[in-house]
Amino acid sequence: MIRTLLLIFALLFLCGPVLAEETVCLQCHGGQEGRLGAPVGRWQTSVHAANGISCHDCHGGDPTDFALAMDPGKGFLGAPAYTDVPAFCGRCHLGVREDYAASAHGMALESGGPQCVVCHGNHAVQKASIDLINEQNCSRCHSYERAAEVRAAISQTEASLQQLEKQIEGLHRVGIDTEKIKGQLFAGRNDFRRLFHTVKIEKMKAETAGFTSRLDKIEAQIVAIEDKLSQRKMIGGLVVLLLVVGGCIAMLIRKSYHEEE
Ligand code: HEC
Ligand code: HEC
Ligand code: HEC
Ligand code: HEC
Ligand code: HEC
């Protein structure tokens, strides 16, 4: 089940950015003021808008019917209460929801523990990164020390991830087919980034080790491709050199031939 959904998302992802369609939700809320209109502009900047996830995908309702758009009979859910947010977002982010629910944060939900929106925001959700772990976000409820430890546990691996992404991008630019290797990195990357939600430092350290060895294998493949490329460049260079040398010799021969005349 989870795999099927992940596959659907992977397919959506591969199809590239899907532009969100104009809906009655956007039309009517776009003309509202204050708390009713603000979500539209914020949502437009989000990773959700960029991936075609619109108002009704989160809030339910009928995006084609002006009058009945927000009818509960059409599946309209309204705005979720604080403690309902993990289930609300978790309809699509199943793995994250599982890890979160079992974590110290998830277990403290009823007594004010942080949920998805506290860290990611609601409408202007951006691509997630380690930068979300900072003093301002993480020292509201407890000391930053524990958060800093979490950040330290994952930052080395995060750095190698970004380095590999850059290298793959570089290979892609010179025309190498990088689909397969990108898929490998993508799957690993998502598993790794999910791990944060456990907020269990021991678990992160343990799994980071396993993940690092996966990254090492990907890096080895990239290095092999890069080596082949530079070999090809060297051979290309050699051929050019031979042609130049050949040309010079031919000229010398012609010159000495003319001189003899
Ligand atoms: C014709 C205008 C109109 C359309 C169309 C419309 N809305 Fe609304 N929406 C409003 C108004 C007005 C309110 C505030 C009053 C209310 O809650 O009924 C509101 C409230 C909301 C709220 C907040 C509810 C709460 O509990 O505070 C959400 C969420 C929402 N709309 C989402 C949507 C979505 C999703 C759609 C499309 C499926 C949609 N709206 C279509 C006018 C509209
Ligand atoms: C990624 C899911 C998501 C999408 C997409 C989304 N919302 Fe929301 N929206 C939420 C959540 C979660 C809340 C609850 C607010 C909170 O807890 O901060 C909310 C709250 C609201 C509210 C109540 C705001 C308030 O201050 O009372 C309105 C109105 C609303 N959304 C309208 C929209 C409209 C219009 C769109 C499309 C432009 C939209 N939402 C898209 C998740 C979403
Ligand atoms: C305490 C703050 C916090 C809470 C609560 C939280 N997140 Fe996150 N989330 C993060 C951080 C930090 C990252 C980035 C981790 C990294 O880059 O290694 C992240 C990453 C993600 C990602 C990207 C993972 C990937 O596959 O690339 C998604 C999706 C996500 N969170 C959704 C959610 C949802 C849904 C919830 C609620 C069930 C939630 N988050 C609760 C902080 C939080
Ligand atoms: C209707 C399905 C759906 C719902 C509901 C939903 N999302 Fe998403 N979310 C997506 C899709 C699709 C993407 C883009 C593909 C991806 O990166 O996974 C995405 C991307 C994200 C990302 C960026 C992941 C990354 O790679 O860095 C975060 C963070 C995130 N969502 C958090 C949330 C939060 C918080 C909520 C609830 C307020 C929420 N989502 C509700 C479908 C959904
Ligand atoms: C809204 C309040 C709140 C925010 C914001 C918050 N936390 Fe927490 N955190 C808690 C609560 C509650 C607990 C569980 C009780 C405890 O151990 O103090 C907890 C526990 C933890 C633990 C210990 C987990 C364990 O299993 O021992 C870590 C690590 C942690 N948080 C990291 C973070 C990081 C990183 C951030 C910022 C991205 C963050 N927290 C933001 C409330 C919060």
Topology overview:
Blueprint: H1 2-14, H2 24-30, H3 34-44, H4 47-50, H5 55-59, H6 85-90, H7 94-101, H8 104-107, H9 116-120, H10 135-138, H11 144-173, H12 179-194, H13 201-260
Helix pairs in contact: 11-12, 11-13, 12-13
The protein binds heme C (5 copies).
Which percent range fits the helix content? 55-70%
Strand content: under 5%
What are the secondary-structure elements, in order, as H or E?
HHHHHHHHHHHHH
- Summarize model confidence as the mean pLDDT: 88
Count of helices?
13
Major sheet: none
Task: Give the number of DSSP strands.
Answer: 0
Distance N to C terminus: 88 Å
* Low-pLDDT sequence parts: 10-18
Bound compounds: heme C
Brief digest:
With 261 residues, the protein is an all-alpha fold. Helices cover 66% and strands 0% of the residues. The longest helix has 60 residues, at 201-260.
Task: Please tell me about this protein's structure.
The chain is mostly helical. It has a domain at 129-232. Helices cover 66% and strands 0% of the residues. It has 13 helices and no strands. The chain has helices at residues 2-14, 24-30, 34-44, 47-50, 55-59, 85-90, 94-101, 104-107, 116-120, 135-138, 144-173, 179-194, 201-260. The chain starts with a helix and ends with a helix. The model is unreliable at 10-18 (pLDDT under 50). It binds heme C (5 copies). One heme C binds at residues 9, 12-13, 47-48, 51, 53, 57-58, 88-89, 91-93, 116-117, 120, 122, 125, 127-128.
